[in-house]
């Protein structure tokens, strides 16, 4: 089946006597292709070449995750549903908000799911649900420079109602319903770009926040505090230093392949060798900040416990910020006015929590619940907003069996073999 990307279609061991393919020099009268054409596979059809037969061979074994891997979670308060993005299966799944997978059940079947080539979704890393009508905003990250928008009830191989072309490596999304603005983080270009909420196609952003003074470094999650009109951005810590030219004017394009003269300097304009690595952080700005603006607050340091902080969520009434701390299998909670090397006011972590590589977090303020999407164990779990320590979830939705391993092979790029340790190394 054509997939649009390279695939390993067959692997065969060497013969017992160590026989290998014969080397044919370029000057040989018979080309390698001609030699292959003369060979006939045992299972070849009468009119089929060895090459055709090879393409039909089944692999000796396959390493993959047959179950869904939840990467983002959001509540639809209008329809009392919870939706998750599934990066492993390239789909969006919807469940009843009160769904709770029984311990002996293999999984919970979704009410519906959006999946297929026409959907314009692949590695969707963040999700927003319009609270007024249930529209679904799904942000692609690694392979598609698009944000797809679906109406409530969309299912199957549904085409988006509209899509917005976004910078490659866009990750997080936040929406200000009051101003009807949509904000996206961009990893590679260390930026936050703001569009009109109803933007589509090649529409340009109305603001861009980017530059060395922003202190953004591989930004991922973003959330808006409507009470203080501030945005919070989580940073993993690596960045190319972007500098304006000597004229002091921005040029170039933030999004590769889309020429927009009003966008700031992009990754191709970075000074060679100017990349840097810093510790993970959370940076805070006025919602309408643009260009190279310094943050109002920076949460960073060893006491913060921040380690690749991914999704963010806010409780504006309690003044609390929730952080999905991916590698440490925890959710950190800070006061929303915290700054410097601040210690979390709560940490949700431990075997009873079932939290494993959390990449999505959502505060359901209507029902007083905290949702966590766990990329590392096929679950989305819900807790009370003030849960802390090793607290079991109130409910769990599973996309696979409890004991099923989670390889977390998200978008594998390269493969090599470690002969000393007899291991395969896969870059994701």
CATH architecture of the largest domain, by name, is 7 Propeller
Number of strands: 28
Number of domains: 2
Round the mean pLDDT to the nearest integer and report it.
Answer: 84
Order of helices and strands: HHEEEEEEEEEEEEEEEEEEEEEEEEEEEE
Quickly give the structural class: mainly beta
Radius of gyration using CA atoms only: 24 Å
Question: What is the general shape?
Answer: globular
* Largest sheet data: 4 strands, antiparallel
CATH superfamily of the largest domain: YVTN repeat-like/Quinoprotein amine dehydrogenase
Q: Can you count the helices? A: 2
Strand content: 25-35%
Measured between the Cα atoms of the first and last residue, the distance is: 23 Å
From the 3D structure, determine the CATH topology of the largest domain.
Methylamine Dehydrogenase, Chain H
Key phrases:
mainly beta, Methylamine Dehydrogenase, Chain H, 28 strands, 2 helices, four-stranded antiparallel sheet, 428 residues
Description:
A hairpin with a 6-residue loop joins strand 5 and strand 6. The protein has helices at 32-38, 50-56; strands at residues 70-76, 81-86, 91-96, 112-115, 124-129, 136-140, 146-150, 162-165, 170-176, 181-186, 191-196, 207-210, 219-225, 230-235, 238-239, 276-277, 281-286, 297-299, 309-315, 320-325, 330-335, 346-349, 358-364, 369-374, 379-384, 395-398, 414-418, 423-427. It has 428 residues and is mainly beta. The chain is globular, with a radius of gyration of 24 Å. It folds into two domains: 1-62, no CATH class; 70-398, 7 Propeller (Methylamine Dehydrogenase, Chain H). It has a four-stranded antiparallel sheet, with no helix packed on it. It is built from two helices and 28 strands.
């Amino acid at each position: 089946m054509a997939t649009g990307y390279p695939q390993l279609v067959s692997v065969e061991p060497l013969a017992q006597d160590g026989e290998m393919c014969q080397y044919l020099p370029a000057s040989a009268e018979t080309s390698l292709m001609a030699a292959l054409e003369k060979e006939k596979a045992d299972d070849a059809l009468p009119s089929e070449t060895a090459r055709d037969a090879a393409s039909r061979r089944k692999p000796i074994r396959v390493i993959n995750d047959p179950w869904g891997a939840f990467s983002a979670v959001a509540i639809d308060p209008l329809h009392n549903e919870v939706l998750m993005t599934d990066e492993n299966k390239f789909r969006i799944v919807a469940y009843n908000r009160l769904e709770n997978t029984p311990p002996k059940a293999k999984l919970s079947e979704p009410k519906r799911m959006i999946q297929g080539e026409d959907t314009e979704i692949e590695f969707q890393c963040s999700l927003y649900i319009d609270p007024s009508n249930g529209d679904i905003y799904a942000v692609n990250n690694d392979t598609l420079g698009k944000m797809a928008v679906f109406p409530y009830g969309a299912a199957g191989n549904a085409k988006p109602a509209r899509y917005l072309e976004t910078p490659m490596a866009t990750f997080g999304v936040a929406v200000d319903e009051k101003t009807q603005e949509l904000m996206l983080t961009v990893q590679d270009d260390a930026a936050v770009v703001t569009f009109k909420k109803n933007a589509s196609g090649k529409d340009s952003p109305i603001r861009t926040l980017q530059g060395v003074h922003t202190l953004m470094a591989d930004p991922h999650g973003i959330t808006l505090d409507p009470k203080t009109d501030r945005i919070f951005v989580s940073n993993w810590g690596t960045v190319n230093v972007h500098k304006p030219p000597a004229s002091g004017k921005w040029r170039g394009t933030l999004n590769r392949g889309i020429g927009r003269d009003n966008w700031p300097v992009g990754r191709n304009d970075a000074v060679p060798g100017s990349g840097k690595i810093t510790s993970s952080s959370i940076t805070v700005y006025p919602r309408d900040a643009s260009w190279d603006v310094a943050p109002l607050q920076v949460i960073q340091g060893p006491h913060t416990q921040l380690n690749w902080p991914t999704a963010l969520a806010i409780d504006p009434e309690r003044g609390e910020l929730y952080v999905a701390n991916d590698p440490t299998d925890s959710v950190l909670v800070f006061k929303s006015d915290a700054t410097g090397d601040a210690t979390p006011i709560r940490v949700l972590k431990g075997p009873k929590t079932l939290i494993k590589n959390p990449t999505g977090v959502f505060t359901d303020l209507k029902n007083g619940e905290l949702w966590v999407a766990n990329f590392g164990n096929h679950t989305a779990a819900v807790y009370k907003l003030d849960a802390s320590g090793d607290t079991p979830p109130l409910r769990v939705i599973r996309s696979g069996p409890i004991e099923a391993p989670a390889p977390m092979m998200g978008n594998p790029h390269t493969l090599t073999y470690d002969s000393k340790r007899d291991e395969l190394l896969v870059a994701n």
